[in-house]
Design brief:
79% helix, 0% strand, mainly alpha
């Protein structure tokens, strides 16, 4: 059985991916660089989504997991839009994903 500490490790990884994307976007200068950044982030978020879905949590620890799952799904979609060059839409979806993940953190991890 997993615990909220495992979820906290996943959230730390989400933050690391976001920080890496921000740093890489400042150094990347071409469209191909941007697409590569989005592709890598999409793969990373997909791996995290698989890890979240594989967690075996107690009933109490599963509260509000839909926020985290939905946030990761939207983050994947945002990165897919970024790969297609739809940067404005990707930004909006990314902000929506971040909001859901922050709300999950506020509701659950903030109460630990």
């Amino acid at each position: 059985m997993n615990s909220l500490q495992d979820v906290a490790a996943i959230l730390t990884e989400v933050k690391r991916i976001g920080d890496k994307m921000a740093a890489d976007s400042r150094t990347g200068s071409t469209m191909e660089d941007a697409k590569a950044i989005f592709r890598q982030a999409e793969r990373s978020f997909s791996e995290l989504q698989t890890r979240v879905n594989a967690l075996k949590l107690s009933r109490e620890d599963r509260q509000h997991m839909r926020l985290l799952r939905k946030g990761l799904a939207i983050a994947i979609k945002a990165n897919q839009l970024g790969v297609k060059g739809k940067y404005g839409q990707a930004q909006l979806k990314g902000d929506e994903a971040a909001g859901l993940i922050v709300e999950y953190t506020r509701r659950v991890i903030g109460n630990v």
